[in-house]
Design a protein that fits this description.
361 residues; Double-stranded beta-helix; 9-stranded mixed β-sheet; 8 helices; globular; binds 2-oxoglutaric acid; binds fe (ii) ion
């Protein structure tokens, strides 16, 4: 195999409709992805994939070389900054079954398991899949679909409101380096919103203030005890209780944090305006926050995902959200599967639980 494009990921074409870089799998590459995922599922004789994540990471070495090359370049250089679409994953929408209706629904079946395998395999090329003990009982692969009663919330399960753009789990010290959204169904062509922070115009003074620990990001609703009680229910053990207490503390006495960090020429970003304090008692910080929010609002793009398309988001370099839509609640609604990936499992050593040992606190 030649590594001719190792420095040439900038050569990835961009989608005409939204300008997002795209890797289109060829027919033989699609077949290979499906074969690798199928073999991986068969190997376990029914043992769930999330209980054998080392095997998943090993099998990821069998993915097509072009895919590995793009993912490894993305992991090591950040390029293309913010993320890309992986197009042409072998998802058969007619075989996935109805879109779930409730958080507690557990989608099952071969095609749904294959979709989870695509996420875990591709994610394993970047880092390690993980979850949160305070979110859906630590489930590793999350399903994104509209839920009755959540229409107006700022949750992935909302619909009629704009899900405001955010970094995923921005409040959390262990937030994901990457998140991956795989589309299984999207009849109404509902757009995900997406924008890399790279190239968002900010004046020097605004950027300087955003690099300082002057901002407050609060936990979003999906991590609260009250929300989990009424959706998936909560396991009754000491670690879970401590985890929710920690979220409550982060809510009651949050630390001040920076919005931008890292390399000023290719910064990391930490924003979730719907859950950020606006009255900071610090005029320059309030102004800078307003500036960056307006600059992102001005540029954010709509990315419509089709079945078999995966949006791979650098959660430190891009924000994302979702446009409003009307749900049908008849099994045909939009349905994505999602996974969190960390670059470094070691930083959560001693703070991980669950059957897979990947649910962080
Ligand atoms: O529905 C989408 O396109 C994105 C939802 C979202 O923000 C998420 O699942 O993290
Ligand atoms: Fe999100």
């Amino acid at each position: 195999m030649s590594l001719s494009t190792a420095s040439g990921i900038g050569e990835l074409p961009c989608r005409r409709e939204d300008g997002v870089p795209v890797l289109e799998l060829t027919a033989p590459e699609r077949d290979t992805v499906r074969e690798v995922a199928s073999a991986l599922l068969d190997l376990g004789q029914g043992q769930p994939l999330d209980e054998r994540l080392e095997t998943v990471a090993l099998a990821a070495h069998d993915l097509p070389s072009r895919l590995r090359e793009v993912m490894i370049t993305f992991q090591l250089t950040g390029r293309p900054y913010g993320g890309l679409v992986l197009h042409g994953l072998p998802v058969d929408e007619t075989a996935i079954g109805p879109t779930p209706l409730r958080y507690a629904d557990e989608p099952a079946g071969r095609e749904v398991d294959l979709a989870a395998a695509y996420l875990m395999l591709t994610g394993s090329l970047l880092g390690a899949p993980f979850s949160y003990l305070t979110q859906q009982r630590g489930k590793l692969v999350l399903d994104v679909f509209p839920v009755m009663g959540h229409e107006q919330s700022q949750l992935g399960s909302s619909s009629t409101v704009n899900l405001e753009w955010h970094n995923e789990d921005a409040f959390h010290p262990m937030r994901a380096d990457w998140i991956m959204l795989l589309c299984l169904r999207n009849h109404d062509r509902v757009a995900t919103t997406f924008l890399p922070i790279q190239g968002v115009p900010l004046d020097e003074e605004t950027a300087r203030v955003l690099f300082e620990d002057r901002f407050v990001v609060l936990p979003d609703e999906s991590h609260t005890a009250s929300f989990n009680e009424v959706t998936t229910g909560m396991a009754d053990n000491a670690a879970v209780a401590r985890a929710f207490e920690q979220v409550a503390r982060m809510n009651a006495s949050p630390a001040r944090t920076a919005v931008l960090s890292g390399d000023p020429r290719a910064p990391f970003v930490r924003l979730d305006p719907a859950f950020m304090q606006r009255a900071l008692g610090d005029q320059p910080a309030q102004r800078a926050l307003g500036e960056v929010i307006a600059a992102i609002d001005d540029k954010i793009k709509d990315v419509v995902l089709a079945p078999g398309e995966m949006l791979i988001i650098d959660n430190l370099r891009a924000v994302h959200g979702r446009r409003p839509f009307s749900a049908h609640y008849d099994g045909t609604d939009r349905w994505l599967r999602r996974i969190n990936i960390t670059a470094d499992l070691r930083k959560s050593a001693g703070r991980r639980y669950g059957v897979h040992g990947r649910a962080v606190v």
